[in-house]
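Our preliminary data section would be incomplete without showing what the modeling component actually yields. Below, a chain of 163 amino acids is followed by its predicted structure, encoded as tokens that our downstream tools consume directly.
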Amino acid sequence: MKTVYLAGGCFWGTQKYFDQFKGVVSTTVGYANGKTADPTYEQVCREGTDHAETVKIEFDESVITLSVLLERYFLAVDPLSVNKQGGDVGRQYRTGIYYTDEALMGEIEAAVKREEEKVGSPLAVEVRPLENFYPAEEYHQKYLDKNPGGYCHIPYSLLHIGE
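Predicted structure:
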């Protein structure tokens, strides 16, 4: 098992998007790389904790590689947008690739380079070690499964490409 943390705007849609892919074993939405220990959603939204809404993705590398996950990540985000994805605006909606295993850096750097070449510009996606990750409140976990038709910044057509 490998783990990567991806910030791609509102974590509801990002989680739903990655849950569809074979080889993704588990996902958890939460708050990453901020200044406040164990923040609440309200704190992240209103108190400048500097957390990014992030999805912890555990995956079976024999089924889906990090390179493929990152290729799919770039399909679902605007990699040039700063602190905004879809209708969501604010620092918590920034894009980021966070890791705890330095061995993943080669694949991450290669994926970022491919995307930069594709879009012809440096990306606004943070690539950093994970400093902290706090799971979000239970009502946020698998939110779009519990609330079909709930808000999602990711196009509906992308939420079903893995089926």
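The radius of gyration is 15 Å. DSSP finds five helices and eight strands in the chain. Preliminary results of this kind motivate Aim 1 of the renewal.
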